[in-house]
Amino acid sequence: MVDQNVYTPEFARMVAKSYYTSDKSLARIGKEFKVKTSTVYNWAQRYKVEFSQEKSIQQEITTFSSVINTDFPVKKKKLTSEQLEQRNLELEVQLKEEQMRSITLNTMIDMAEQELNISIRKKSGAKQSK
To answer: Which InterPro entries does this UniProt record tie to the protein (predicted)?
Structure first.
């Protein structure tokens, strides 16, 4: 006869939430909670709808925080004119890249509209569908 552990739904939910709100692997979560990896996987699947959105939001927050912390100089630092010139050049390059990206995307949309004979861009004054 196989020993089968019985876990409360609250415990299963807590383990699944821990998986979805961290960057840890299923195996790591299993070790932390002393549960088989397959059990963690099953719980993660059961609570996927509930917690996967939290994980994506958490990842967006992390990404946004890292962008803010690395892309913008902190006001506390006094930058030399050379550093400011370098930063200015970096921003100009980024601007050019985004302008090229915008042109490319607009060209792709124009081509798709012509080839597929459909309207992709939103018309001014068009009502939003509910």
So the answer is: ATPase_terminase-su_N, Homeodomain-like_sf
Q: Which residues contact 47 (CB under 8 A, 6 or more apart)?
A: 12, 13, 16, 17, 20
Q: Are 91 and 113 part of one and the same domain?
A: yes
- What are 116's two structure tokens? 């597929």
Same-domain check for residues 9 and 66? yes
The residues, any chain, with a CB within 8 Å of residue 12's CB and separated by 6 or more, are: 43, 46, 47
Tokens 């993660």 -> residue = 44
1, 64: one domain: yes
Rounded-to-integer distance, Cα 48 and Cα 61, Å: 19
Alpha carbon distance 71, 53 (integer Å) = 27
Centre a 10 Å sphere on the Cβ of residue 48 and count the other Cβ atoms it contains.
14
The answer to whether residues 46 and 15 belong to one domain is yes
